[in-house]
Fold these 3 entries.
Entry 1:
Amino acid sequence: MLIEMRNIRKVYEQGDSTCEALAGIDLKISQGESVAIMGPSGSGKSTLLNIMGCIDRATEGEYYFDGKEVNDYSDGERAKLRNEYLGFVLQDFALIERYTVKENVILPLKYSKKIKKEAREARIDEVLKLVGIEEKKEQSVLKLSGGQRQRVAIARALVNEAEVLLCDEPTGALDKATGREIVNVFEELNKKGKTIVIVTHDPDVAAECDRVIKIVDGRVE
Ligand SMILES: Nc1ncnc2c1ncn2[C@@H]1O[C@H](COP(=O)(O)OP(=O)(O)OP(=O)(O)O)[C@@H](O)[C@H]1O
Ligand SMILES: [Mg+2]
């Protein structure tokens, strides 16, 4: 099993108030699956994705990634796992606007030894081609459309040969047709063996995934 969570709880503390965002999540995701995570606003989807992506830690429970309990990892070990195995795709793309496409995509390579320096240029060309945006390589991202920006973000997520893409409402800022194109990109990547987890409010996006996990009030329904 690639991802396994057992009784994951997340409690946010703010001053003297607390919020239980996740109330005991159990789930499994296999290598190569595409999974949609759906549920009402505030149900804990982003919290769950952040814990899955080792951006945040669970308050309680067990999280096994590739058989290893990563809740117990040090911050450094978690950063390495994030950089080498996980790619993130967010609703607002999270690109650096004053950089070119290439400068954005190269960023994760600077923090990893996974791709050797002399192989970087070829790797960038490869991922840009994979997402269909190779002709924009030297352009500033400021001049790109929303769909093109999301392609850049997916290329950046993939450049370190991530096994898993974790996507939080990746089509949320796109019109229907452009969102469809981005879903097609995910489908192609999934066919090539990538594991894809997509938080989405859009039933059409979810319908393209192998499986839907529904979250309500911090629990799997
Ligand atoms: N950093 C935080 N500090 C305190 N509470 C938080 C924090 N992040 C999220 N929460 C709370 O945790 C609960 C779950 O939030 P989360 O963002 O995971 O929901 P969501 O399902 O992603 O919602 P949406 O569909 O609107 O994005 C909410 O009640 C939210 O207010
Ligand atoms: Mg959210």
Note: The domain at 3-220 is CATH 3.40.50.300 (Rossmann fold).
Entry 2:
Amino acid sequence: MRMRKKRHGNERLLALSALLYPNPGENAPRPAEVFGSERPLVLEVGCGKGEFITRLSLAEPDADYIALERVADVCVVAVEKYARSRGLGDMAPNGGWLAPDGSLYKDGAVWDIPFEQRGNVRFLVADAADFAQKLEENSVSAILANFSDPWPGKGDHKKRLTSPAFLENYRRILKPDGVFRFKTDNDGLFDYTLETLPENGFRILWTTRDLHNSERAADNIVTEYERNFTERGVPIKMLEAAPVKDGSSGEKA
Ligand SMILES: C[S@@+](CC[C@H](N)C(=O)[O-])C[C@H]1O[C@@H](n2cnc3c(N)ncnc32)[C@H](O)[C@@H]1O
């Protein structure tokens, strides 16, 4: 996702940093400590401007969500969208973040948002490749990848979010009854993913090459990229797969 450099992007992220997931490291808190719950954990890789995760987290509130985005200037848009959706204020006309009580957070000021107002999503500026390696085995209930970059160039396959190295990590961190969900406009990437999943320890549970005319259309939450492709008449492809692990049948959605 290409974007013009955001004015005060880092400062804006800092103001709402209570909504960021702590960088994983040696003494980093476990997800259950971050969210204060043992609810199912869902990971979105490449969340873009955050419309999908913002709406999903409201539609399915009984889970906790980590939304990863590699580009900070894109992530800031997602965090602000989520904050607005939770009634946490808005951008101030002259810069900074304006909380509902009128407090202004700018020039590096951090709003320590009360825990109970933070909701069930935390965002992180990170590469999915690095982050997925740091999560515990069998800890994630669902991994969601929407409209990830197709990387069609020769030699770029390894950057695809469904290339073998990524899938190996996804399979390790997914619970035996966990699920991987993937949407794309791109036929080449879809076909590639249909091949790489079974080759890397996943079982395909469900596929469609026309999501908006499928039985899942009514429950589908449209992403920013999806809206764009749909307006141009491109059918949306989707698949769902489960990790095949000791003790899992690979049947569960
Ligand atoms: C094509 S956009 C789709 C955004 C959003 N999911 C949607 O459907 O509207 C793909 C996004 O994934 C991010 N991305 C690509 N590779 C990534 C990686 N390895 N880790 C984290 N984010 C990544 C890009 O920065 C970009 O914002």
Note: The helical segments are 9-15, 31-35, 51-59, 72-85, 128-134, 164-173, 187-199, 224-231.
Entry 3:
Amino acid sequence: MDYEVELQPGRDQTEESLVVRHADGTAESFRLHEYGRVYAIPGLYEEVVQRRLLSASATVLAERLIACAAAAGIDPSELAVFDLGAGNGVSGAELRARGVGTIVASDGIPEARDAALRDRPGLYAEYLVGDTDDLPQVGDLIRKHALNALVAAGALGLGHISAASFHRLWTAFPPGAWFSVSLHEDLAEPGGSDFGDYLAGFEEREDGGRILVREPFRHRLTMAGEPITYVAIVARKARG
Ligand SMILES: C[S@@+](CC[C@H](N)C(=O)[O-])C[C@H]1O[C@@H](n2cnc3c(N)ncnc32)[C@H](O)[C@@H]1O
């Protein structure tokens, strides 16, 4: 790593920022949520989010999905996952490390795909760039790769992927499909966000499914060292 990083706490998660001092004496400052700038610097996301802020979402979601599948008699190699808001591949790498074969990714920004191809070549069978609603090829991709699970690690709420967009994607998955997602505990409550409301009505709707896991966990630390609690949610569609 030929740079040093200073963390600058903010009023909330979306305000936190970084100063990166490069070996050539230049420095740049940007918010952690400016993902394009974070991914553009090799190793920066892993250094800040995983190593210093101890992010756990990608690991927890992979573990819970695989445990639920195992309880249903399904081997990780039988899971074929769509990694939504995949970033530079941290979430995909956690799935692969546990034996998931096929993984297809999407992210809203090209810098995420470029970083995943740069840092984890071969991890993803395909990597789509664009907002999920603007990716008409997703239905075909789900069929082509026989995708049967949807993972979104740290990618829902906070101006990221909306519940309506997530649900449209979910309806494209086959009977018996799984999802494993994480979001801030406040946003997961009814009235807390569009996602909280979506989850509250999820089991009642015909095109929803059954929630198998709903577990609070420490998603990561803030830059000030305070824990941020997210909820891991694993659900499965009826097998039809
Ligand atoms: C906190 S990062 C998580 C990345 C990865 N899942 C991980 O576990 O490291 C959130 C990602 O969601 C992506 N994202 C935000 N809004 C999106 C959208 N509407 N469609 C697709 N990706 C989106 C961001 O670009 C960013 O890469």
Note: The first helix runs from residue 35 to 40.
